[in-house]
Amino acid sequence: xxxxxxxxxxxxxxxxxxxxxxxxxxxxxxxxxxxxxxxxxxxxxxxxxxxxxxxxxxxxxxxxxxxxxxxxxxxxxxxxxxxxxxxxxxxxxxxxxxxxxxxxxxxxxxxxxxxxxxxxxxxxxxxxxxxxxxxxxxxxxxxxxxxxxxxxxxxxxxxxxxxxxxxxxxxxxxxxxxxxxxxxxx
Length: 186
Known about the structure:
Elements: H1 8-30, E1 55-60, E2 65-70, E3 76-80, E4 83-84, E5 93-102, H2 110-115, E6 134-138, E7 144-148, E8 157-159, E9 163-166, H3 167-176, E10 182-185
Parallel strand pairs: 1-10, 4-8, 7-9
Antiparallel strand pairs: 1-2, 2-3, 5-6, 5-10, 6-7
């Protein structure tokens, strides 16, 4: 015959655990917390491209992640990103990498300067440059995939239209991404 054994310690630990779990369950049920890394949505290149070509990038602005596949599909990487501040600043669709630059300079667009007249007209490469250490230019003028020195921006809506990555991650992506890589911004 099986013997049921509940000690005082078991009852106390069980009560404490249920007391701790109940508020967490209630909070989750009412308002789920969205965390940057856990909110990445899995993407499959086949859902968006006919072939990999020279490679493929999907910048998912909803989950704030950039997905990369090399030309033969053997290398798949995911990077956390910053995304545009609003839907009006977000250009979505297909494009490709047309140019790459280490130590990019920055010239704010007329619209950026209209929104913020205090922006400089030009900024050389360096630690204050908002494009970080590396930039990959798209077929769309003024839209880039670039680094950032301001690490607080990653995982947030914080850009004027570009996709931003931590500087070490843009360097990694920059080194493995050939010009001509196809890009989809969702």
